[in-house]
Amino acid sequence: MSGPEAAPTAEEESELAEQCSLLGLDAELLRQAEAQQAQEEDDGDYELPPELHDAWQCFLLTLSQWRVQVGLASVFYDGIDRSSLFACMQMLGIKRRKQRDVLLQVQIIESEARVHRNKE
Question: Domain segments of the chain: what residues?
Fold first, then answer.
């Protein structure tokens, strides 16, 4: 496509149809899925499932507790300090048997946040 919102050209449509037929895919279903994904990406609001509330709360409470590496001309956000994260879990009353799951969920959130924090 020529631009982010431009309609595909006839040549691009033909190429897509050819690739889909080689892979045994339905080109129309592919277009529908692509349109749905674009719409979901445009939506600014996301609903957080209840099972992720503890992880999100821990992430937000430790937002200022990142380990930072400073170089000559740059700063790199490495990750959330684990001792701060575990202290946060204790203060929130997260049961010990659930802390492993919360830690893994926070690490997933942290990995995406690291990308965005290091863009700055």
Answer: 10-42, 50-117
Per-residue pLDDT of the chain (120 residues; tens, 9 = 90+): 444 556 778 888 888 888 888 878 788 887 888 777 777 665 566 778 889 999 999 999 999 999 999 988 888 899 999 999 999 999 999 999 999 999 999 999 999 999 988 886
Radius of gyration of the chain (CA): 21
CA 84, distance to chain mean position in Å, is 22
Q: How far apart are CA 87 and CA 20, in angstroms?
A: 52
Q: What are phi and psi of 67, to 5 degrees?
A: -80, 135
Taking CB atoms within 8 Å and a gap of at least 24, the contacts of 78-86 are: 78/114, 79/110, 79/114, 80/106, 80/110, 85/58
Q: What is the distance between the alpha carbons of residues 8 and 25, in angstroms, rounded to a whole number?
A: 18
Question: What's the rounded Cα separation, in Å, for the pair 32 and 66?
Answer: 40
